[in-house]
Amino acid sequence: MLMNYRWSQNWRVFAYVNALVCLPGFLFFQFFIHESPRWLITMGKFEETKEVLRRQFTTSKQLYLMSDEFHDVLQTEHAISKQQNSKRGQYSYYHLFCTWRLMLTTVVLAFSYCATSIVNYGIMFNMEKLSGSIYWNSVWTGLMRYACNLGFGYADLKFTRIGRKFIHTSGLLVILASLAFVIISYIFHINHELKEEIRIAILLASSMTSQVYIADGIVGNELFPTPVRNLGYSFLQLWNRVGVVLSPFVFYLADFWLALPFCVMLFLSSIDMFSFEVLLPETKGKPLVEHMPPRSDWIIKGKIESPQAAEPLV
Fold first, then answer.
1. Would you say residue 250 has pLDDT above 60?
2. Residue 95's pLDDT band (boundaries 50, 70, 90)?
3. CATH number of the domain at 94-279, out of 3.40.1260.10, 3.20.20.140, 3.30.160.270, 1.20.1250.20?
4. Transmembrane stretches, by residue range (predicted)?
């Protein structure tokens, strides 16, 4: 507590401390993170692209992919990207719904972002209602998120069977179990006796939302075709913000019953887990979707002008 007082006794000192904590991340990003190979190909920087891909393939033990024809492949992809970029303005949010598969992907991920934000920010905006210090509750939430992220990150690299669905579903299972515990304690009127256990359960539910966010973001990038990937990400973030806006209002339901907000969160998280697990494919280890689906697969043909989908390389 004394250290916290020394660091936050005025905003100037607190801002300096925050800047100092962020400095290692800035240095790491500046000197150890390379540009995206896709962007380098688009800009025609073939030598730098090959160097970046060589490091990636060496790490993943796929160096054999860099054959003698690799430079020709890069040039072909550069030509395709130039053709797509020249017509990029013709893509719109409509194209996120142009086929049944894209529509399903967009709807499921948008709902997942919205439901997760309702759980996460609903708890955060009502943190003062939990037992204990609001500051220590925030600290424990951050530590649990940090530990979970490191654990799942290691498991994703170490075990091939642990994919995007496992991370998403396991995080939601913890959320569902935590929320169910809180609801049961209210049903049997033992919430006062179990106030510390309820605090831990709610903080754990809030912590595990970070895993759901990560899985949603990765799956969205891996399922949306390259020409509409940025559009897809922005659309999902829109529904993320919708969840943020709705989250405070969920706790107004506590006027009818104290456990009702948690029942709503439990319901939304259950739909999220079921739809993600059943309706979306596992994307770990699968190549990115580089091109839009052919016009023959579109739901409404001939209505919206769009660039012709480039043929993928064989």
1. yes
2. confident
3. 1.20.1250.20
4. 12-33, 102-122, 166-188, 244-268
Q: How far apart are CA 314 and CA 301, in angstroms?
A: 27
pLDDT at 3 over 50: no
d(C-alpha 110, C-alpha 96), whole Å? 11
Q: Is 189 left (phi over 0), alpha (psi -120 to 50) or beta?
A: left
Tokens of 189: 């009127």
**CA-CA distance, 84 to 308, in Å (whole number)?**
9
> Mean pLDDT in the chain?
82
Distances (CA, A) of 213 to 61, 63, 86, 110, 296: 29, 32, 33, 11, 33
Buried b (16+ CB within 10 A) or exposed e, 267-297: ebbeebbebbeeebeebbeeeebbbbbeeee
In whole angstroms, what is the distance from residue 268 CA to residue 265 CA?
5
Q: What is the pLDDT of residue 9?
A: 67
Tell me the whole-structure pTM to 2 decimals: 0.74
Amino acid identity at 173: L
Positions of CATH 1.20.1250.20 in the chain? 94-279
